[in-house]
Write a structure and sequence with these properties.
392 residues; 14 helices; 36% helix
C-alpha cells in the first residue's frame, strides 16, 4: 500500500436518502473558549432542527440533545493532583481525550449513531481504535482544525478540511480527493451586531475617543499567535494608542501578561471576555491585527471582518484565501513592518476603509449559506466506506 493511503471497506447495506444520526463530540465545550469549541457549538445550533444530532461536551448545562460526560479534564483538579498522563509520557489533553472517549462509548452502543464527528485529534484516534476493538459500525468524521502535517492526521473514515491550503497540502501528500471535503467554518454575522454606538462602548470601557485601539482576539501565546511580536511592534508606535489583547491562556503563555505590561504599561489591556461580549470589542476598536504566520482557519479574523472592522494579517496563501483583500496583507515576519503600518494608519485614518470587506465575508461564511453543504457532508459520510486504517 502506498504511503498515506486509506484502506476502505465498503458497507453491505444500500445507501439511504435519510439524514443520518450524528454525535458531535468535543470535550472542551463548556470548559474553554477556543475555535474548536465555537465551531462545534455553532454547528450544533445550526443543524439541531434539521437532523437527529446530539452534542457530547465537557461542561455546561445538559439537555435532551446535549450530554455532559464525566471524564478527566486536562485543566481539572484530577489531572492536577493525579497526573496519570505522565506515566505514559503523554500530555493532559491525551488523558482527557482517552477518558472522554471511554465515557462516550455507552452512548454509541447498539448503533445509536451513524456518524461520530470529532475535531480533537487524540479523541479521533482513540475512537478509531475502540471502534475496531469493539466491532462498532459508526462512521468516524474528523475535522482538521490544527494545521498539522498530513503525516500526523488521525485515522478516520472521512475528513473535513476547513482551509484550502490544508486541503491542497493533503492532496500533495497523497490523500485521495474522495477521502476529504473542503468545507469552511461558518459564523452567525447577526451575533456580532451591537446595539450600542462606538462612543457609548468607549465611554463604558473608559477609552477616550481619540485613542487608536488595536485589537487582537487570539490565544495569548508566542509560538503560534505571536503575541510577543505584536507587543513589540505596538511598543514602537508613538501617540495615543491602546493594544487590547483578548484571549485564553489555555495553551497560552502566562508570562506574556507581565511582558505586555512591562513594554506597554497603561497602553495595554488584557481580557478574556465571554463569547457573547466579543462583538463589543470589534465595534469599539479601530483595527484588528492577527500576527500568526499560519492558521488552521482563523475564526476571529472572519468574525471581526464581518462587523466591518479593518484588519491586518500576514501575507501568506492561507490569509489571502481567507481574507481576499490585498490591502490587509503585510509581512508579519519583518520587524518594523507592522509598527510602520499602524503608525501610518493612525495619521491617515481615511486609509482604514480600504481594510474592510464585511459584505463579502458575511456572504461567504454565514452559517445559513453553508447549512446545505454540511447536511450533504453527513449524507456522504454515512453512505461512504468504513476505513480499516491508514498510516499513523
Amino acid at each position: 500500500m502506498e504511503q498515506g493511503a486509506v484502506q476502505l471497506e465498503y458497507p453491505e447495506e444500500p445507501a439511504t436518502q435519510q439524514l443520518p444520526k450524528v454525535a458531535l463530540a468535543c470535550p472542551g465545550i463548556g470548559l474553554v473558549q477556543r475555535g474548536f469549541e465555537r465551531l462545534f457549538r455553532d454547528q450544533f445550533d445550526l443543524l439541531e432542527g434539521d437532523l437527529e444530532i446530539t452534542l457530547f461536551k465537557g461542561g455546561g448545562r445538559p439537555s435532551q440533545r446535549e450530554k455532559v460526560l464525566n471524564f478527566v479534564a486536562r485543566n481539572g483538579r484530577v489531572a492536577k493532583w493525579a497526573p496519570l498522563h505522565r506515566l505514559f509520557g503523554r500530555t493532559p489533553m491525551h488523558s482527557e481525550c482517552l477518558t472522554f472517549a471511554l465515557a462516550l462509548l455507552p452512548h454509541l452502543s447498539r448503533g445509536r449513531y451513524d456518524i461520530v464527528h470529532c475535531i480533537d485529534p487524540p479523541l479521533t484516534r482513540v475512537l478509531f481504535k475502540l471502534r475496531a476493538l469493539l466491532c462498532m459500525k459508526f462512521r468516524l468524521l474528523y475535522t482538521e482544525g490544527c494545521a498539522m502535517s498530513p503525516a500526523d492526521y488521525p485515522p478516520a473514515d472521512h475528513m473535513q478540511q476547513i482551509a484550502k491550503v490544508s486541503y491542497d497540502e493533503a492532496l500533495r501528500h497523497g490523500l485521495p480527493g474522495n477521502y476529504m471535503t473542503l468545507l469552511p467554518c461558518g459564523i452567525y454575522p447577526e451575533r456580532f451586531a451591537c446595539a450600542h454606538s462606538r462612543a457609548q462602548l468607549r465611554e463604558e470601557h473608559g477609552i477616550a475617543e481619540d485613542v487608536f485601539v488595536i485589537l487582537c482576539v487570539a490565544a495569548l501565546n508566542r509560538n503560534h499567535k505571536r503575541v510577543d511580536y505584536l507587543i513589540e511592534e505596538v511598543s514602537r508606535v508613538e501617540g495615543k494608542c491602546l493594544l487590547w489583547l483578548d484571549g485564553s491562556l489555555d495553551h497560552g503563555d502566562p508570562g506574556l501578561v507581565d511582558f505586555a505590561r512591562e513594554r506597554l504599561g497603561e497602553r495595554c489591556r488584557i481580557t478574556h471576555v465571554a463569547s457573547n461580549e466579543v462583538a463589543e470589542l470589534y465595534h469599539l476598536a479601530d483595527i484588528q491585527v492577527h500576527c500568526s504566520l499560519f492558521e488552521a482557519f482563523g475564526l476571529s479574523i472572519v468574525e471581526g471582518a464581518a462587523t466591518g472592522l479593518p484588519l491586518l494579517t500576514h501575507n501568506a496563501p492561507h490569509f489571502q484565501w481567507l481574507l481576499p483583500n490585498p490591502d490587509s496583507w503585510i509581512d508579519m515576519e519583518r520587524p518594523g513592518a507592522l509598527s510602520a503600518r499602524l503608525s501610518f494608519l493612525m495619521s491617515h485614518p481615511e486609509a482604514l476603509e480600504a481594510l474592510t470587506c464585511a459584505g463579502q465575508v458575511s456572504e461567504r461564511f454565514a452559517w445559513e449559506n453553508l447549512k446545505h453543504e454540511y447536511l450533504a457532508l453527513y449524507r456522504r459520510v454515512a453512505e461512504g466506506p468504513l476505513s480499516k486504517g491508514r498510516r499513523q
